[in-house]
Each structure stands twice: as C-alpha cells, then as structure tokens.
Amino acid sequence: MSAAPSLRKRAAPLAEPVRGRATAPSGRDARLGVLGRDLRVAARQRVGWLLPLAFFLAALSLFPLGLGAEPALLRRVAPGVVWACALLSMLLALHAMFTSDLADGSLEQMLVGQRPLVRLVGERVLAQWLLGGAPLVLLSPLAGLAFGLPPDAAGVLGLSLLLGTPVMALLGALGAALSLGLRHGSALVYLLVLPLAMPTLVFGSGAVLAALNGEPAQAALSLQGALLILTALGAPPLTAAALRIAME
Question: Three-class SS of residue 33?
Fold first, then answer.
C-alpha cells in the first residue's frame, strides 16, 4: 500500500517535462502560423516555387524566336504575352495549395483549430503570392523592356501584375478547394480559374496597351483594383466553405 504513493511521486517529475514540451507554444509559429510554415517549407524545397518562375522565363523567350525579331511586332504583343505567361506560370502551382494538407492531416487540424479558417486561407494565399506572384511582378518590367516597351509602359506592366497576380492567387485557392480530393483535380482547377481570371488579364494588358499608345491607363488599373477588392472579400470565405464541404 505504501509503495503506490512513492511510485506516483517518482513518476510525477518525469511526466512534467514531457507535458511542458508538448504544450509550449512557439512564439514564431503563433505569430506567423500557416504563412511562416509555408515560407519555411519553400526555403527547404526551392524547386516547387522556382519551377513556375523558370516556366515564365522560358515561355517568354520562345515568342521572339517564333514571331521574329521585329521590334514593332514584339512591342505590340508584349502586354498580352507577358500577362498570358504570368497566368499560366501561376496555374502550375495553384492546384496543389491544399493537397499536402489533406494528405498529412493538417487540413483537419485547420478545420477544428481555434484560429478562423478564413484567416488561415488568407495566410496560405499570401504565401502563395509571395512565392509565385511577387517574383513575376519584379521581373515583369525587365521582360517588358526586353520586348521593347518604353520605361513608362514597362512600369505600368509591373503595376498591373501587382494588382492582378493576387487575384489569380485568390481564384486559384478557390479552385483548389473546389477540386480537392478529385482524381483529375489539377485539370479542373485550370477549367475553373482560367475563365474567372480573364477579366483581370484583359484589364491588365489593356492598361499596358493604353500606356504604350500614350493614353491614360488609370481606368484599366482602377478596374483591376476593384476586381482585387471584390476577390479579396469574396474568395477566402468561399474557399473556407469549399474546404469544409470537401472534408465532410
């Protein structure tokens, strides 16, 4: 009878450190959450986010070879070519936004966790844009200059992609959530996102064409900004609802 309390006394100090290590929160993880985790994973697995960027550069380099080196022709097709290559390169990584979370059980933890799912979706979209959209924005003025665009038109090209690439990331998250778990989910993402992304592509390339022709580009850029606001307000809640439906 007296041995049981002594065993409990000796076992208690051993259990305390284990419980402390299991429940001690990491300050960095608490502040960054999904965003910090995605950026750390991308830092270790660079191929995943460098491949779309390499596709963007390779696709751009093919058009001068196919169309010829006539400066006037390249200057005229540059806005549409750069925008189309940017859209296709972002689509390469969008279909897998939630696939790994579904495979390792992280998605279930996101659904039952204390943090709002809409916020977690927003962090995932922000991480996707930082890895896939921001490099395109930085490279787009250089691509425009390589195609013969004047500096002001190249600047408008970068600004239009700055407004348009977040829209594509938000729409890609919605498409990835709607096709989550399906056998041909990647093809379905393309079919869902491409039609929805056409307006921002049209307005973005139209702004560059207006600047190229010496006309004001504020109207097209304002329409892009309106699309970004509407998408930022509507896409995360819809994506969160689609994730809940996919897990039922």
Answer: coil
Residues 6+ apart with CB under 8 A from 162: 137
Say what the pTM is.
0.79
Average pLDDT over residues 85-94: 86
| Predicted local distance difference test score (pLDDT) of residue 1 | 43
In Å, how far are 46, 103, 147, 152 from 216, measured between CA atoms? 39, 49, 21, 11
CB count in 10 Å sphere of residue 55: 17
Q: Are 87 and 168 in contact (CB under 8 A)?
A: yes
Using the 8-state DSSP alphabet, how is residue 84 labeled?
H
Alpha helical stretches, state H, the chain:
3-23, 27-32, 34-44, 47-67, 71-94, 99-104, 106-112, 117-128, 134-146, 151-178, 185-212, 218-247
